[in-house]
Design goal:
The protein has seven helices and seven strands. The structure holds S-adenosylmethionine (SAM). The site of S-adenosylmethionine (SAM) has 18 residues, from helix 3. S-adenosylmethionine binds next to helix 3.
Length: 229
């Protein structure tokens, strides 16, 4: 999928010193370059990432027969997840009609809805958010929405804050050259967004082909509430 157009959005600077403030000032120039090149390094790393994801799910003994991919885009990854997990049923959710149509062309049933407020009577063994969390305004609210769709697991794969020495010195998440205008969440923030109805059973962070941020997988299992009459 080619990235959707990205406009240079100045975010509130993170707490930090002079270097961070200077960096926030030059940042929009990098974002314009990113838009002009229409290049997203994330997509170079997808095959390796899916291999890692398969190992991650196997290690956590995840076997499922239905799934929904929330923020499925053009469905390229949704279709690969379907094949990788041998799913009988896969759906997607996306607000973008053009992308939803492309996903339908890949045999995915797509609900065109806002993923942040979505309610659906359908429930799935696995609810996936693959690279869509950073579009959500409120992490907890979004994770709660994912949780309502699940009868088994919730899996979040997204960019997370890279914590290297340079980030610590400058105090800026934009160092070095974080190009995304979207707020990147730390893996701790993702883990802590799950409420008592879920237990986080797996969390792993990897380097992307992208040098700007890390990529995390967080897997949570829904706790079964026993209802004795
Ligand atoms: C970075 S793309 C990821 C697409 C796909 N999961 C992938 O990894 O190739 C994020 C997707 O989330 C969708 N999206 C963003 N905000 C949304 C919202 N509020 N409701 C539904 N979809 C949304 C966008 O249309 C886009 O397709």
């Amino acid at each position: 999928m080619r990235p959707t157009s990205i406009t240079a959005v100045a975010e509130a600077p993170q707490p930090g010193g002079v270097a961070a403030r200077w960096y926030e000032r030059v940042l929009p120039a990098w974002q314009v370059t990113y838009s002009l090149l229409n290049w997203n390094p994330h997509f170079q790393s997808v095959p390796g990432e899916l291999r890692r994801l398969r190992q991650f799910l196997e290690k956590n003994c995840v076997t499922v027969s239905s799934a929904v991919d929330v923020g499925c885009g053009d469905g390229a990854i949704t279709a690969r997840l379907r094949d990788m997990l041998g799913l009988q049923r896969i759906s997607g959710v996306d607000l973008n009609h053009e992308l939803a149509e492309r996903a339908r062309g890949r045999g995915i049933e797509v609900i065109e809805a806002d993923m942040e407020t979505l309610t659906s009577p359908s429930k799935y063994d696995l609810v996936v958010s693959y690279g869509s969390l950073h579009h959500a305004a409120d992490t907890r609210q979004f994770v709660r929405t994912l949780g309502r769709l699940s009868i088994g697991y919730v899996l979040i794969v997204d960019n997370t804050v890279r914590q290297n020495a340079l980030h610590r010195v400058t105090g800026s998440r934009h160092f070095p050259l974080e190009l995304s205008p979207y707020r990147t969440r730390s893996s701790e923030e993702i883990v802590s967004a799950f409420d008592d109805g879920f237990r986080v059973i797996g969390s792993a962070t990897f380097r992307n082909a992208n040098v700007f941020h890390d990529r995390s997988f967080v897997l949570a299992r829904k706790l079964v509430v026993s209802c004795e009459l």
